[in-house]
Amino acid sequence: MYSARRKNRLNIGKKKGQIYSLLIKVVIPLLIVLSVVLYLKLSTKYWNGVDKFAFVFQKASRDVDVTVLDPALGEETTLIIPGETEVDVARSYGSLRIKNVWQLGVNERLGGTLLAETVTRSFLFPTSLWSGQDLGDPWKFIFGNKNTNIPFGDRVGVVIFALRVKSIDKTEIDLGKNQFLRKQILTDGTPGYVASGPISGRLTVYFSDNNFGDKNLRFTMTDSTGTPGVADGVGQVLEVLGGKVVAVDRKPADSSLDCVVSGQNFDAVWKVAALFSCQRSSGKSDFDLEIKMGAKFAKRF
Question: What angle do CA 48, 265, 291 make, to 5 degrees?
């Protein structure tokens, strides 16, 4: 009898040991992996491994990089804007050398948003994303990147893609060493750069959205900003993305309106709303995308 009970206890202990071993070797690691995957999924907003991904970064030299990742072509392109380039800063901050825009954004509690908005406004490079680290140090880009609005999951996806891009598929274009900018005396009386004319399609082509161009999307705008030039600037950015602005309805200034985006194409609505920080509306529309802009939007464009 004693021997049977002892054997039974040994069997129970053995089963408990097997269960414990299973938990340690399989269940807990699996839960950890699932938790990490879920966290990455929930913290990924922009990177989907299919569409282009662009962000701005100010280098130690104070030049500004605009990096574009193109999963469809497996390419990484960086456009370098010399820090001594004079630009019209977004949100009506006047003209400054672009090297000073990042710090101005910090001072005004806007972070790198002001730099991203200025790049979009002045160069028609559509991006709302900014980073305090570039892809040169993948570890810092993911884990040591405190000054950025790129979510953690996006940073992980971006780094994985960038590490796979071959050197031959990485391109840098210094706008100061090409005909895209020209040297002249700036408003402060010292030499610098200014845009040599309308932004070249040879540059904006890097930002065209494959989905927009392939589907011949039709965009329409309602301009209630009361500020000349705002709707034209927005229209140019939308056409860089690949949409076609087919109508602009100009109305009296609406001081209560910022911007609202709606339309039949959900993907276009989401991307444009994210780019310009607009509200999305589920209202019916006859167009792929409609954007309504008011006086509040004009103050920050």
Answer: 105
Residues in Cβ contact with 105 at an 8 Å cutoff, skipping those fewer than 6 apart: 111, 112, 113, 114, 115
Mean pLDDT of 25-51: 61
H/E element, 241: helix 230-241
Q: How far is CA 146 from CA 44, 47, 132, 201, in A?
A: 16, 19, 7, 34
| Distance set, CA 62 to CA 43, 81, 82, 85, 274 (Å) | 30, 9, 8, 11, 26
* Predicted confidence (pLDDT) per residue in 188-198, tens digit: 899 999 998 88
- The pLDDT tens digits for 254-267 are 999 999 999 999 99
